[in-house]
Amino acid sequence: MITFWVVSAMLMAGALLFVVPPLLGGRIRIEGSADHQVANLTVLRDQLRELEAEHQAGEIDDAQFEKARGELERRVLEESAAADSAVAGRPPIGLVATIVLLLPALAIPLYLYLGSPEALNPSAVSARANTGEGHALTPEQVEAMVEKLAARLRENPDDAEGWVMLARTYNALGRYQEAAEAFRTLTRLLPADAQLLADYADTLAMARGRQLSGEPESIIARALELDARNVKALALAGTAAFERGDYAAAIDFWQRIESQVAPDSPTARSVAGSIAEARNRLGASGGTTSASAAAGSPVAVSGRVSADGAITAQLQPDDTVFVFARAVDGPRMPLAIVRKQVRDLPFEFTLDDSMAMMPAARLSAFRKVQVGARVSRSGSATPQPGDIDIFSEAFDPHAATAVELVLGGRATMSAGAPPAAAESATPAAAAGLSGQVSLAAGIGERVAPTDTVFIFARAASGPRMPLAILRKQVRDLPLAFTLDDSMAMTPAMRLSAFPEVVVGARVSRSGNAAPQPGDFEILSDPVRSNSSGLDLIIGREIR
User: Fold this and answer.
1) Residues 216, 382, 291, 451: what is their CA dihedral angle, to the nearest 10 degrees?
2) pLDDT one-digit tens code per residue, 235-261
3) How many other CB atoms are found less than 10 A from the CB of residue 332?
4) In the structure, how many helices (H) and strands (E) does the chain have?
5) Contact indicator for 214, 246 with CB cutoff of 8 Å
6) How many other C-beta atoms are found inside a 10 Å radius of the C-beta of residue 205?
7) What is the mean pLDDT of residues 253-280?
8) Is 53 exposed, middle or buried (0-12, 13-18, 19+ CB in 10 A)?
9) Which end of the chain is more exposed for a tag (fewer CB within 10 A), N or C?
C-alpha cells in the first residue's frame, strides 16, 4: 500500500510540473515583452522630434509633415496600449499556489470515493474470493446468456461462429444432446472442417451413452476423409475399433497419432498405453495387425460398370463415376475407390488394398463388403441429390467374386473373373505405368516396417498434383506396381492426358502425402506415360 501512495505522489508531482512552469514562464515572457514595448515608445518619440526638425528646416512641406506625424502618433498609441495590456496580464502568485494545493487535496478524496482502495490489501482480496464475492457468474446468469445466444442464432442461423460457441458451451454444461444438435447445424455450414466433425462425433457419442458405433463412427470416417492426420478423429476411430474388438485397426489408428506427437507428451504416453492394451488383447485372441494380414493375403474385387439405356440421356460425358467398396459393418468411408467419367462407360474395374485411404481400412480387413457405383454431376465424393447410384449385395471380398453394376438397372455377382465381354469395352489406348520399387542398401535399417510408402506419377511439365498414386508399407517392399487412369484424383488429371511423366516413390514416417524432412524418396527422369519395366530404388533422404 505504501508503494501505491508513493507512486501516486510522484504522478501528482509530474502533473504539477506540466501546469506550474508554463504559468511562471508566461510571467517572465510578459515582463520581457513590456520592456521591449517601452523601448519602442522611446524610439518613436525620437523619430517625431527629427520629423519636426526637418519640417522647420524646410526639407519637407506641410502635407508630408502632417501625414508622417499622423503615422507616428498612431504607432505611439498602439505601443502604449500593448504595454498597458502586458502589465495587466501578469498572473498572480496566488493562482499558482492554489493549483499546487488543490490538486492533491481533490485527487485523494475522489480516489477514496470512486476507486477501490480495498484492492490494495491482498488479504482482503483473498478473503473476498474465498467468500464467493466478486465477478463470478452464477449458474442462472450462464443459463440466461446461453439462451440469449440460442435465440440470436434462431434469428441468424448462418452465424457459424455463434454456433461454435453455442455447441461448445452446451458441451461444457453437459447438455450433450443440445450440443450435438448445434454441431449438426454447424457441420452443414462448415462441411469441410475435420476438427468440427471430430467434435461432433465425440459429442454425439456422449449423448448416446458414450457409444461410438453407428452414426458417430460414420462422422469420424468423414473427418478422416478430410484430414487423415486429425488427432482427435484418429483417437476416436481407434476407440471405436477397440470397442468392436478390431484391435488391429485400433493399433493402426493410434500408431498414426504416435507419429505426430512428442514422445514425452501426455498424449504420447496415453496412446502408448492404449496400444499396449490392444496388443495384449490381440495376442490373446491369436490375431495379427490388419497390415500384416493384408501383406500375407492380398484381396481384390473386380467387375464391370455400365449404364442402362433408359438413363443415358440424363448423363453428361464429363459427369464423374465413382466405383467403390465399403464395409457392411464398420465405417462408411470407402475401403477402395476408382474415379472415372461417363464417357468411359462401360468399363472394367479392380478394387484392392493398394487403394486403401488408411492402413486400417482395407478390403482385406473386412469379411462383408458392398461394391457400389455412383454418377455424380458435382464431382463430389459425398452423395448429392440428383446423383444416380447402384449397390451390390454384401459379400466376402476374400472369395473370388465378379460384380456387374448397371447404373439405372441392377447389380449381379458371379464367382470367378468378370464377363469376357468387358474386355472389349476397355479403351485400347489407356495409359499405364508399371515397374518395381525397392529400398537402397542401408535404408531398411533406418525405416520401420509400418512406415508408409507412396508410389506416384506426376506430369513432367505441369501441376505437381499426382496423376495416380498407390499407398503401401515398407514391409511390402520390394513390390511390383501399376499406375493407370483409374487412380486419377480428378477427371482432368489423368496419366493419359500427359505425354511425359515423372514416377516417384517415397517412404513417409508420418504417413503424410506431402514430403517431410527425414522421408526417403526416388524420382525418375521424365518417361512416357505408358512405360513399363521401371525400377525405382528409394535412397535419397529429404532434408
Assistant:
1) -100
2) 999 899 888 888 888 888 888 887 787
3) 14
4) 14, 17
5) no
6) 24
7) 83
8) exposed
9) C
**AA identity, residue 456:** F
Q: How far apart are CA 331 and CA 354, in angstroms?
A: 18
Q: What does each C-alpha distance from 142 to 152, 173, 180 come to in angstroms?
A: 15, 10, 19
Query: Strands, DSSP E only, in 270-400?
Result: 300-307, 320-327, 336-341, 347-352, 369-376, 388-391
Rounded Cα–Cα distance for residues 348 and 422 (Å): 6
List, in order, residues 6 or more apart from 318 with CB less than 8 Å away: 341, 342, 343, 491
Q: How far apart are CA 531 and CA 212, in angstroms?
A: 47
Task: Confirm if 223 and 193 have CB atoms less than 8 A apart.
Answer: no
With helix as H, strand as E and coil as C, how does 165-213 read? HHHHHHHHCCCHHHHHHHHHHHHHHCCCCHHHHHHHHHHHHHHCCCCCC
189-201 in b/e burial notation, b at 16+ Cβ within 10 A? Answer: eeeebbebbbbbb
Per the DSSP assignment, residues forming a β-bridge with 326 are 370
Q: From CA 511, how far away is CA 471, in angstroms rounded?
A: 10
Residue listed under C-alpha cell 480495498: 118
Q: Is 421 helix (H, G, I), strand (E, B) or coil?
A: helix
Cell of residue 240, nine digits: 471405436
CA distance 373 to 449: 34
Identify any residues that bridge with 499 across adjacent strands, giving them in sequence order.
none
Q: Find residue 373's DSSP bridge partners.
A: 323, 390
* β 534-538/432-439 pair status: parallel
Give which of 426, 367, 371 is closest to 402, Cα–Cα.
Answer: 371
Residue count of the chain, please give it: 543
> Helix axis angle, 231-243 relative to 266-284, nearest 10°?
20
Q: Which of 87-91, 304-308, 417-421, 501-505 has the lowest mean pLDDT?
A: 417-421
Single-letter amino acid code for the residue at 75: R
Q: Which residue has the cell 490373446?
A: 284
Omega before 216 within 30 of 0, i.e. cis:
no
Bridge partner residues of 458 (DSSP) = 502
Burial class (CB in 10 A: 0-12, 13-18, 19+), 166: buried
Q: What is each CA distance from 349 to 21, 292, 424, 459, 503, in whole angstroms?
A: 93, 25, 13, 24, 23
The answer to whether the beta carbons of residues 297 and 374 sit under 8 Å apart is no
pLDDT tens sequence across 169-225: 888 888 889 989 999 998 888 888 888 899 999 999 998 888 888 888 889 888 887
Annotate 236-261 with b (16+ C-beta within 10 A) or e (fewer).
bbbbbbbeeebbbbbbbbbbbbebbe
Q: How far is CA 180 from the centre of its chain?
A: 22
Compute the distance between CA of residue 389 and CA of residue 408 in angstroms, rounded to an integer. 7
The H or E element containing residue 473 is strand 468-473
Could you tell me which residues come within 8 angstroms of residue 429 by beta carbon, excluding any fewer than 6 positions away? 496
Residue type, 284: A
